[in-house]
Amino acid sequence: MRNRALLALVVVAAGIFVFGVAGLIVSGRQEASGDFVAAPRGTPAGGGPQTLQLRPDSSPEPSPVSSPEGSPDQTAAAYFQAWVKSDYDAMRELVDEPPDDFADQHREFEDAALSKSLRITVGDLVRTGNETAEIPFSQERDEQDAGTWRFDSSLHLAVRDLTWKVVWTPSVLHPDIQPGGSLVRTEPDAGPLRPVTRAGREFPQNSGAEAYLDNLVNQGVAPTTGVAVGWELEVENPGMPAKTVLSYKPEKRPAGVRTTIDYATQAAAARALDGVQRGALVAVRPSTGEILAVADRLGGRAAFERKYPPGSTFKTITAAALLNNGLSPDSTVDCPAVYQIPFHRSIHNYKDEDHGTVTLRQAFALSCNTTFARLTIERLNADTLVDQARAFGFGEGGGGSTCGSLRRPENEDALAEDSFGQGTVEATPLCMALVAAAVESGEWRPARPLADEAPQGELPQSVPLPSNVAEGLRSMMSAVTVDGTAAGSELPQGTAGKTGTAEDGQGGQDHAWFIGYRGDLAFAVFVEHGGTGRGAAVPIAARFLKAL
């Protein structure tokens, strides 16, 4: 009888246990779905409204004795809400045994992704065991240039110490990231870029600018290792090749580093020098100082770096000093064949030409050495001439950063020689093109070799010319082509300039110069040992301007 009673008690107890397990399995079936819409990245924790939509839980209330605190969908909701707010501390509290660098891994991911916004869309929660669950979700990230980046992941949850916790691995950030892995942004390059014209075209063949393009590369202006073209996001896992998960490549790859050189102007300059053994032509834009063309048959970068006596083209600077000291283009002056400096040497005109009494404008147009030597000695001094030259980009002693040089004259003989571009005066073709540009625009500007958005380095300050000086010089340079040393040539109408014939100081044939401007284009033509400016340099300038 006692055995029967004991057997009945065992049967009842077993029935109660089976009923309890069945109830736990049923109550564990829960489903959740919803959208988390994030404000732009960087919204502070707790700031900005976030939206979450979840279907109501239709499961019966769990037994308060056997069920853990909360539910997996509640933990997931709190985790996702903290994520879109970048509240990594709140996220960490919901994770079981988070790694020490939990927040750092998230920040590094965001630094690589550079997402402008983040949206998380939650799928249906699935129970994978009595105390485990999984909820799929999608991330949508707005990426610069590449648009929306969407990918799917899963959030795993489990009961730890009677609390639903997130079981976190790096795959939560992205499904391809394994422990120890990370998301990395790379910027592929287009290979070494060569300088190109302002419009992005390659330079004309045999343009005479090759040495200048090489120099830009050597200076680091044009990168020798290439420039970034688009970007890629890669997942890098230990011991595995990197995997690209998102990339952006622009439709148009940059052709190269843009210079200020204009293709048509460069082609015209190069062809104008065809047949010239030793010469150079530099063109600049007076309103900006941009280099429009450089055709060099002198070798190396002589048009920018090698200085020659500028001859009578330097009278442009001497004339500016005279206009600054009381004279005008209409002032009456003498142009004798020879001028004898009192107690010093005598100065001769070219071929000892005597033009008698003329205006300063005519003396300039006829390139009277005697006029400018006498006026410089009588009205100017060494400091005045040096200061005026400095305003046009010249520097004393010929330092490497100056386009021209002029030592302070020590006596009247030296001052007279310097006044018409001999003596210690030297200048590069680029320097004299900038002198012509200053006359046209009324302001001396440094040369600019690169397009506006490119770094130019440290450039000297611009120097404005007094209005009477600029207007006077324009009048005088126009007279040169109308009834002066360049008159009757094939120069297009509207061209103004100044010829120059300079002794080379070595007993060889004279150097030929012609500087000038037409509209918003200034230029300098130089022919080494070419003879006279009118005979050798003016025809080159005419071919150049007529080709534009």
Structural key phrases:
single chain; 548 residues; alpha+beta; six-stranded antiparallel sheet; 15 helices; 23% strand; rod-shaped; disordered N terminus
Binned strand content: 15-25%
Largest sheet: 6 strands, antiparallel
Radius of gyration, whole Å: 41 Å
Basic shape: rod-shaped
How far apart are the first and last residues' alpha carbons, in Å? Answer: 126 Å
Low-confidence stretches: 1-35, 37-65, 396-401
Tally of alpha and pi helices:
15
Helix content: 25-40%
Question: What would you say this structure looks like, in words?
Answer:
This protein is 31% helix and 23% strand. The chain is built from 15 helices and 25 strands. The strands form 8 sheets. Strands 1, 2, 3, 4, 5 and 6 form a 6-stranded antiparallel β-sheet that branches. It has a 5-stranded antiparallel β-sheet with strand order 13-12-25-24-23, sandwiched between helices. Strands 7-9-10 form a 3-stranded antiparallel β-sheet. It is α+β, with helices and mostly antiparallel strands. It has helices at residues 2-27, 72-84, 88-93, 102-113, 210-218, 263-272, 302-305, 315-323, 360-365, 369-379, 382-391, 412-419, 429-441, 467-483, 533-547; strands at 34-40, 115-122, 126-129, 132-143, 147-160, 163-167, 182-186, 195-196, 231-236, 243-248, 257-258, 279-284, 291-296, 332-335, 338-340, 346-348, 356-359, 394-395, 404-405, 426-427, 443-444, 463-464, 496-502, 511-517, 522-527.
